[in-house]
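Predict structure. Input: S-methyl-5'-thioadenosine phosphorylase, 290 residues.
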Amino acid sequence: MTGTMIGVIGGSGLYDIEGLEGAEWVTVDSPWGAPSDAILTGTLGDVRMAFLPRHGRGHVHSPTTVPYRANIDALKRLGVTDVISVSACGSFREEMAPGDFVIVDQFIDRTFAREKSFFGTGFVAHVSVAHPTCPRLGDACENAAKDAGITVHRGGTYLAMEGPQFSTLAESKMYRNVWGCDVIGMTNMPEAKLAREAELCYASVAMITDYDSWHPDHGEVDVTQIIATLMGNADKARNMVSRLPALLTPDRTPCHHGCDRALEFAVLTAPEARDPGLVAKLDAVAGRVL
Ligand SMILES: CSC[C@H]1O[C@H](OP(=O)(O)O)[C@H](O)[C@@H]1O
Ligand SMILES: Nc1ncnc2[nH]cnc12
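Output follows.
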C-alpha cells in the first residue's frame, strides 16, 4: 500500500465508482457537520481510494447546501492526500463541446451563500489560492482522460455561480466575452479553497454537458439535455478514474507546487489567543501546524 490516497468527489450524474477492491461505504464523523454521504473506500492496484458523491446518493444536496467543509474534512480525516473533483459544467467555448473534459486551472468565485473557510475568530489563517489547482494532479487527470479516449482540454477558467438557476443570457455573455471564462458550474467553490486550506492537492475535471445560454445555435440551457449528456460523461469519468492510480507516484513525495504545505506561514493568531474550541475542530484540517 502507498502513502497516496486519491479522493474523488463525484458531481451530478456520478454517484459511485466501480472496480474498487474491498469496496465499503464508510460513515465519517466530522466536527464540521455531516458530509454529503458515506464515503466509498477501497483500493485500485496498490493505491487507496475514497469516493464521495458531492450531492449525496439520490442527489439530495443543492449546490448551495452541499456541506463543503464537512466533505473536505472527512476526506482528510480518512487519509486522502489528493482530491479530484469531477463536475458537470456548461461551456463558453465552441471548441469545448458537450462530452469533452476540461482540466480546470483557475476559478472566478461568484458564490455568496456558503461557508468558505475553516478559519475565523480565534484562529485566523490566510492561504494563497493564486494557483488553486495542483499541476501534478492535473497532469495525471489529463493523461488518464487521454488514455480513456476522452477529448480533453488542458487549462480553463471555471465561473462558480451560486445557482440553483442557470445564468441569464446577459450573465452568460459577460462571463464569456468580458471575463474570459471557459466553463461554468455551481460547486467547485468553495471546495477548491477549502482543499487548499486543508493542505490537499486538488484538481478539477469539468465534464461539459452544454453550451450554457450564449450559443446562438443551442439556445437556453435545458436540464433534460444536460442529463442525457451526463450519463455518457459519467461512464467516461469512471474510465478516467480507474486509470489514475497508475499515473500518480506510488510513494508520497512533497508536492512540488506546495499544496501540502499551504499553512506553513498562514496562521496569524498567537498560540495564547487561539480559541480552544476552534483549534479542536481543526485537528484534521490543520493538525500539521497546530
Ligand atoms: C445537473 S445541472 C446543474 C448541476 O451540475 C453541476 O453539478 P456538479 O458540479 O456537482 O457536477 C452544477 O454545478 C450544478 O450543481
Ligand atoms: N450551464 C451550466 N451552468 C451552471 N452549472 C452547470 N452545470 C452543468 N451545466 C451548467
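Residues 11-12, 54-55, 63, 87-88, 163, 185-187, 226 surround LNRAV4D5 (ligand 1) (CB under 6 Å).
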